[in-house]
Amino acid sequence: MNQFTIKEDHGDELRWKLEQLSELTEEDFIRLLEEETFPIDQFFSYYRCAIMEIETKFRVLNEQFSLRGEKNPIEFISSRIKSYASIMHKLHSRQLPRTLDSIEQGLDDIAGIRVVCSFRDDIYRLAESFLRQDDITLLEKKDYIASPKPNGYRSLHLIVTVPIFLERETRLVKAEVQLRTLAMDFWASVEHKLRYKKDLPPETLAMLSNDLKRCAEQSADWDDKMQNIKDLLQG
């Protein structure tokens, strides 16, 4: 059983379903997530709270930079809770049981926050200031800007825990923070859309992959030039 309390008025049927999650088919599991509102809603509310906490921290940092007479480094912040289908796919690919405990312990990116910055150095300044806060714990850092993925993807990924303060308890919740420039975010958005065009011939997909990688390199060059212009103007 997972650690979340089940109210008595939800009955033995829900108790049984939660105990048998790992034995359900994929379709039945997704249907349970969609139809049984407790404790599923409670579980995902923790991640929504974590997103609110982290977004607030970045908005405060953005305000502090502007008060010092600097331009706001953050262009925009977006967030999402991972869909049930995506959760199921990850559990399956990692051969993890279909339980709430397994989701909480085995997946780091249920809550995702994307911070899009003007310049590349803003990414590292914001990340440093964010991680310096004593209630943020860094679990993992992946710098795909310094070492891009083979397809050209660039971003700074931080897996962290953040405390959320509830009525009767404080919980530590994991979240993934991605920091990118505008150019990195535009490229990643387009690449994500094209990646799911599965009805294209293999040779066309290969050609598009090569073109996208060249575009990623050109975007990185654009970031370099914009960063150089900023450094010259501030120097």
The gist of it:
The chain has 235 residues and is of the alpha+beta class. The chain has helices at residues 11-19, 26-35, 40-67, 84-93, 100-106, 120-132, 182-195, 202-234, and strands at residues 74-81, 111-117, 137-143, 156-165, 170-181.
Give an overview in words.
This protein is α+β, with helices and mostly antiparallel strands and 235 residues long. The protein has a single domain, classed as Beta Polymerase, domain 2, CATH 3.30.460.10. 53% of the residues lie in helices and 19% in strands. It has eight helices and five strands, in the order αααβααβαβββαα. Strands 1-2-5-4-3 form a five-stranded mixed β-sheet. The N terminus is likely disordered.
Low-pLDDT residue spans: 1-17
CATH architecture group name: 2-Layer Sandwich
Main sheet specs = 5 strands, mixed
How many structural domains are formed by the residues? 1
Which class best fits the helix and strand makeup? alpha+beta
* Mean pLDDT figure: 85
CATH fold-type name:
Beta Polymerase, domain 2
Oligomer: single chain
Question: Judging from the principal axes of the Cα atoms, what is the shape?
Answer: flat
User: What is the CATH class name?
Assistant: Alpha Beta
Rg estimate, integer Å: 21 Å
Q: Give me the number of helical elements.
A: 8
For the termini, the CA-CA separation is: 60 Å
